[in-house]
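Inputs:
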Amino acid sequence: MQFEVGDETVFAATGGKDVDPGKQTVVFIHGVGQDHTIWVLPTRYFARHDRNVLAVDLPGHGGSSGTPLRTIEEMADWTVAVLDAAGVDRAALVGHSMGSLVALDAAARHPNRVRAVAMIGISVPLRVTEPLMAGAEADSQDAIDMLTYWGHSDVAKIGGSPTPGIWMAGASSRLWEQAAPGVLHADLQACNEYEAGLERAGRLKCPALLLLGEKDRMTPVRGAEDVREAIPDQSTVVFPGAGHPLLLERSDAVLDELIRIV
Amino acid sequence: MAKPEPYDPDTLALHAGQHPDSDWGARAVPIYQTASFVFPDADTAASRFNIERTGHVYSRLTNPTNAVLEERISALEGGVGAIATASGQAATHLGIATLMGSGSHIVSSQSIYGGSHNLMAYTLPRFGIETTFVDPRDPDAFSTAIRPETRLIFGETIGNPGMEVFDVPTIAEIAHANGVPLMIDSTFTTPMLARPFEMGADIIVHSATKFLSGHGVVIGGLLVDGGAFDWEGSGKFPTITEPYAGFHDLVFVEEFGPTAFITRARKEGARDFGPAMAPMTAFLILQGMETLGLRMARHVENALRLARFLEGHEAVEWVRYPGLESHPDHELARRLLPKGAGSIFSFGVRGGRDSGQRFIENVVIASHLANVGDAKTLVIHPASTTHHRMEAEALEEAGISEGLIRISVGLEGIDDLIDDVGRALHASQRV
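Outputs:
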């Protein structure tokens, strides 16, 4: 589905269905340099299970026009603007990595618009290493290799994809390779400079779910300790042996947890 | 902080796609010899059918043993996913049928496996798909042959029987400039000698019957998706970019992004054409692939030594092996195939058809049969076997001289092999 936010066109995958005002809505927000395709399984599931689904492409990503937004707060406000454009009053927000920061920020600052928030692979603050930032600034393949091989757990580096016949590291890399020049760097910088996460966590009024990978080196479990303590109403699931791309590595288990909250 | 690296190909060949069995800890890949998989509940069943949850439904579509093989070849090739098929021909057909339908056109190297040539020259035209065959050494010929309805360029890393080295980077550039993908048959080289995706190819097919399994005990194929082709930018592939009525108007590129092609091939082609590989076959290919790196290095070493021996033999008129300086593509082979130009080559026995036949009848270690890529050395003399009805002139037109022997050099002790071939050459010259 395409609609307009400001002067730009926004693409959102809807599971092939139009927004029905009589249904609850779930908004999915992708991570650094990615797009809506990381959500293919949950969007198709929830679309068939009585939800409106909007798996958005952030500006400058996937099928959405424009340039990447510079801060997490801008992305959070943009997400609320997407709800307005879609005619949705309240929604559950589900984010992955950078998207989880966006979901957190939107839920804290727009409590009347968010009924639940799920954050997959989150650290607060979410610091980016200097080599990764430098690689992304240069639009280098090295940055994609770092995201791929630091992101996947050591176990997942030899595969074992829940989706039969898919090589997860290859699929991750190709998606990042599709990002336009400058997008990776802009997104990583937005993550790196987001300082308000703990303060926002303390303001959450809705239930929150954190899904973490035990072997995640991008957003390690310890990086979520403070934000867990700050959120008034949260539950956390740590997936043993899993890395950062939980939607690839633990597809069904992630869906089972999301079903509990959204 | 050092940049992280993927595992070495030799490590991937042993491990990619498999964790020890979760139920019993089996270290070897279990053989899931089952047609179907029990659904835990009705909603999970519906979810698996509708691509909402992962898991297996029916072994024509996916199977856990096959999935390990599919991941392993994807990892070794640097792709995003693969489908294991009943033969290499099934893989090639599945790839073509996923991309195009009636009214489409292929530009193919003329130096390809006979089965692939038959498919494109005689069978696909019955379904409205035409092919123009061109000289693989002439990039301009590919450009010239491309039409508005062209949907694919096809070639083999090393051609057959001319052993032409396919200039993947150059032809990939031509393909992409015309909005079509390049499909490469990498059977002769395997990912241990060539990585066509890194050179610009978009789709790879293998006859896994050959070096991948390595022991001549199975028939199998693999279709591998590189995941980088710009389907939307091309605008020529409605199977990938437009709603598919056969799956609730699913738009594959919109839902699956980099894995759109291989997912369409599975959801349509694997379902409707039924080219599935048997799980036992997948297991045997996996066993072979564990030693692929070791075997390919030895294949190449033996091939080069035997080729040099033949080049200096008085009963041999010529040797066609890209690993030799005398081959016209030697420099290209050094650039694209630095680890070796495979172990299949051809040579001409002095004396024509009768001498060739006598050579074949006098080898002892080498086996006379129609296959390549076995651990054992294989030979065939087309003029007295596969092409025996053709006159000398027709053979020459097909690039096959009367004395041509094709050899697939195996892993035997090289001195024994040289002795065997030497004795047979001596016998071939007796009148």
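Remarks. The radius of gyration of chain B is 22 Å. Chain B touches chain A through 53 residues (CB under 8 Å).
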